[in-house]
Amino acid sequence: AATHTFDWNITWVTANPDGAFERPVIGINGQWPLDVLNFTKGDRVVANVHNMLGNQSTSMHFHGLFQNGTSDMDGPPGVTQCEISAGSTFVYNFTVDQTGSYWYHSHTRGQYPDGLRQAFFVDDPNDPYKGQYDEEVVLTLSDWYHEQMPTLIKGFISVLNPTGAEPVPNAALLNDTQNLTVSVQPGKTYLFRIVNVGAFAGQYFWVEGHSMRIVEVDGVWTNASETDMIYLTAAQRCSVLVTTKPDTGANFAMVGSMDTDLFDTIPEGLNPNVTGWLQYDVSQTLPQPQSKDTFDPFDDFNLIPVDGQEALGPADHTVTLDMKMDNLGDGANYAFFNEITYIAPKVPSLYSALSTGGSAVNPTVYGTDTNAFVLKKGDVVDIIVNNDDPGKHPFHLHGHAFQVLARSDDDVGHWNSSQAVNGFPQVPMRRDTLMVRPQGNFLIRFVADNPGVWFFHCHIYWHLVSGLAAVMVEAPLELQSQLSILSNHYEVCRAGGVPYLGN
Ligand code: C2O
């Protein structure tokens, strides 16, 4: 296995990815878009992150990696570490034990939609589709804002925005541009690895004249499932096989299309689509896409893991999270699980878990505003999300891929056991990010076999900053025997963290 050592200076650079507006973005080593990273299962990553932004602290999260034994490398400030303050350095050092499609992003307030995010991929020496494709193509989908996040957040969480209307993106991007052409050859099969690195919008994606076979979701190989359109919420990934035409007669549009159901208003002039092209022949035109009917983005339960892992259970422990958006009495809109809007503690929850001995099993150790749940080692855990809000929300659990046992239709209300009257899927879909329907619910399941402190949150950026998060403190006593606190970081945190709310 290889070791990949990175020296990353996090710096401001200027970019104009939609060709309409030049703005400062957060880059690495003076560069943006950021590098797509490629690892192989078993590799070690050593990323020296030097915060050279001057005016903001930072952090880095490798989304989808379980960080087994290295919970302290997971990244979210207030959960597993302190912010990396301006001028200081943090070293992320971990091994990569999974395969598939992922992304790395800042987990600090306001940063990844300002540019600090990119896809990464982990090759599988035992790739079940090996030999069935000729080449890989990386595609990132993203929404894009012209204004910087600190300004947008200020307007968003404000008495002037009592309904919590989310800022609507200015544009959609494919590989951080609106001019993407992918050269392809006829009669070949490509593995498209597609990642939604956006802040807010789920996106539909299709390639005109070509069908796709989904073979991976969120790092889990699946039995091939044919479709002519996919939908990825913010933070979801998938790989699809695309076989090209036998001849080179024409080029074909591929389209990413932001899910405008998520937007409270659709500003005049907004183009929710981004078009790129499969280019067979440079001498031919690049056609404009036809319009296309979209499909129900929730209908993805046929994505069966290749490994055949059956539904776990029964559950030993159920965490029920009732979510809503509401007012805290200050006139601004926030998001709540069980009446609590998440506020990052000054001392990261991981440090609390490591420093409190036997009391670490007591949820009150983690404070009243963290929505902390303590899970016992080896327990089969259910998380039920009951969505009391009329919007769609993509939830992400750090540290695990979970089995998707049930998800209700719109407007069903809270989970009730009659939804399981026909049992659960025998071999459920497994992934790390799942959307709950408007005023519906879902039930996901995993084994608490990864001691650590794991964030669970809506991956719509606006909802994370408004507090839609909980913390799973998993097997804290076993964790204490794995990890020790880096005391210097602990002191930095005590001096003052950066809460999600407040100024
Ligand atoms: Cu993409 Cu909390 O992470």
From TrEMBL:
State the family it belongs to: Belongs to the multicopper oxidase family.
Q: Which residues form the Plastocyanin-like domain?
A: 10-126, 135-281, 343-476
Its membrane topology, per UniProt? Single-pass type I membrane protein
Q: Which Pfam families match?
A: Cu-oxidase (PF00394), Cu-oxidase_2 (PF07731), Cu-oxidase_3 (PF07732)
Tell me the PANTHER family matching this sequence: IRON TRANSPORT MULTICOPPER OXIDASE FET3, MULTI-COPPER OXIDASE
**Protein name as catalogued:** Iron transport multicopper oxidase FET3
Mind listing the UniProt keywords for this protein, alphabetically?
Cell membrane, Copper, Glycoprotein, Ion transport, Iron, Iron transport, Membrane, Metal-binding, Oxidoreductase, Repeat, Signal, Transmembrane, Transmembrane helix, Transport
Subcellular location(s) per record: Cell membrane
Q: Which GO terms describe its molecular function?
A: copper ion binding; ferroxidase activity
Listed PROSITE patterns: MULTICOPPER_OXIDASE1, MULTICOPPER_OXIDASE2
Q: Which organism is it from?
A: Cladosporium halotolerans
